[in-house]
Design a protein that fits this description.
With 479 residues, the protein is α/β, with parallel strands linked by helices. The strands form two sheets. Strands 5, 6, 7, 8, 9, 10, 11, 12 and 13 form a nine-stranded parallel sheet that branches. Helix 3 packs parallel to helix 4. The two termini are 38 Å apart. The structure holds zinc ion. The site of zinc ion has 6 residues, from strand 5.
Length: 479
């Protein structure tokens, strides 16, 4: 392994692809769309969105150089990739997803606590093996890319080797990846249990090795309050403090108030805490870099506390519907000043594609009288998510100097999508239909740090061959 070097936040991360295959000056031509700021919830996003049909996205040394209109093409020194007739967006960001749970996605018939016992824990136990972790990490990250997501905050398993494998694979791909070893020292099977001292040693080793290296960052990862003792949560809070000055600080990811049985259980386990959220707050786990999944059953005091800390909610509608957990009131969280970022939450969620997350999110909000516009939805999985992760300087839009993490999408895949696109009368109507109907089969190409990625076959089962088939050819098309 290459010896990693420390990387302070004010230094741009190294975007050089491992293969060095990217052309130093690359121009993508297509229907370029990105957000200049939060578009709000109106159908009128004037001033918040930039759309350049048949425009030019100029990429130099892995970073966005400029976006230009169709009538201002670059000179011949720029290699051209012709994606006219395609939608060119910043890569999606997934702020809450479990790498090992690809193995149990779409498992029948259980609510959260039962689902963990029956499916998740047995699947995660396999990642104690370094080779399983390596294969799993590559399978997961390639699948993520094939679904149009180029950056993510990811749960590994309790095993140090599973985080290590994700970091290694993410670094090879040049991805913006944040992950960490799960902390779990009680209420779980023995083969998934750590203890406070060993867990701390493992975390420190992983942090020292990976946090701030290239585009990687470490997330302190207590699974949820039920599976960590108070001592372990205190250790986790101590790590956040100890490394607060290192590369902008560590991230913290966990679950909160997902399901009512779970909320009752936490109240029994922590009788002195005012609420489920208060357990985390009391152990120093709420920071600007804390991402808490679900938050369905929080109250106003909890929301205010999250807002004060600058912590965010990962809204996981696919998972919440699938496990029957409940409906997140996004408007209420936003009114309280809490950042909300849509997340796949695979394997509770049933698709890695953030378009499917948004389509489910629209329905969850519709049941509560709220309407997710295509503007707010697409902002939330790009620039909005980057903002919640303190990464707006690097990803989520196409301002000059940002990393060229780009996904090229087909506007339509199949006759139904095509007919709907043909009938649309406005850009919002077109985008909303696309957000609702499209999925990973619409992905035409993926660029990470300006380097075109073609997910490769990773294991003997050939699992990824199918996904790779959805991506465009590896060769540059004539401009
Ligand atoms: Zn989760």
């Amino acid at each position: 392994m290459t010896t990693p070097t420390a990387c302070p936040t004010d230094r741009p991360p190294n975007l050089a692809p491992a293969s060095g295959a990217a052309h130093p000056r690359l121009a993508l031509c297509g229907d370029i769309l990105y957000f200049l700021r939060d578009p709000g919830w109106s159908e009128d996003a004037t001033g918040a969105v930039r759309f350049e049909p048949d425009g030019w996205l100029l990429i130099e040394h892995g970073r966005v150089h400029a976006v230009r209109p169709a009538d201002d093409p670059p000179d011949a020194s720029w290699a051209r990739h012709d994606w006219r007739g395609h939608l060119v967006l910043p890569g999606f960001i997934d702020p809450h997803v479990h790498a090992p749970q690809l193995d149990v996605i779409a498992s029948f018939g259980a609510a959260l606590l039962d689902w963990l016992e029956r499916y998740t824990f047995p699947a995660e136990a396999r990642y104690a093996d370094a080779e399983q972790s390596r294969l799993g990490a590559e399978r997961f990250l390639h699948a993520l890319l094939a679904h149009g997501t180029t950056a993510a905050l990811v749960f590994a398993t309790v095993h140090k080797t599973s985080s290590d494998a994700l970091f290694k694979a993410g670094r090879r791909l040049g991805m913006r990846l944040i992950t960490g070893k799960v902390l779990m020292d009680r209420n779980c099977p023995a083969d998934l249990r750590d203890d406070v001292a060993q867990a701390e040693r493992d975390c420190v080793e992983l942090i020292e090795r990976w946090h701030g290296v290239d585009r990687l960052a470490y997330a302190v990862t207590p699974r949820f309050a039920a599976t960590s003792s108070a001592e372990q949560l205190a250790m986790a809070g101590g790590l956040l403090q100890r490394y607060a000055q290192r590369a902008g600080g560590l991230y913290m990811q966990t679950h909160v108030a997902e399901n009512r049985d779970e909320v009752r259980w936490i109240a029994e386990l922590f009788p002195d805490s005012r609420s489920y959220l208060d357990v985390y707050a009391g152990h120093g786990l709420l920071t600007r870099r804390s991402m808490l999944a679900h938050g369905i059953w929080l109250d106003d005091t909890d929301r205010d506390r999250m807002a004060q800390a600058g912590s965010s909610i990962a809204f996981s509608p696919s998972s919440n519907l699938f496990l029957g957990s409940g409906l997140l009131d996004w408007a209420r969280a936003e009114r309280a000043g809490v950042g909300v970022a849509p997340a796949s939450d695979v394997g509770g969620g049933t698709s890695l594609c953030q378009l499917r997350t948004l389509a489910d999110g629209y329905k969850v909000l519709a049941l509560q009288g709220q309407r997710l516009t295509a503007w707010q939805g697409l902002y939330a999985v790009t620039r909005g998510a980057a903002r919640t992760l303190e990464l707006e300087h690097e990803i989520g839009h196409f301002a000059p100097g940002t990393a060229a993490d780009v996904v090229v999408w087909r506007w339509a895949e199949g006759a139904v999508q095509q007919r709907r696109q043909d009938m649309a009368r406005s850009l919002h109507e077109r985008l909303f239909a696309w957000m609702t109907l499209a999925d990973e089969r619409n992905v035409a190409a993926v660029y990470v740090g300006g380097c075109k990625i073609v997910p490769a076959v990773q294991d003997s089962a050939g699992w990824n061959r199918e996904a790779a088939g959805h991506l465009g050819p590896a060769v540059a098309r004539p401009g």
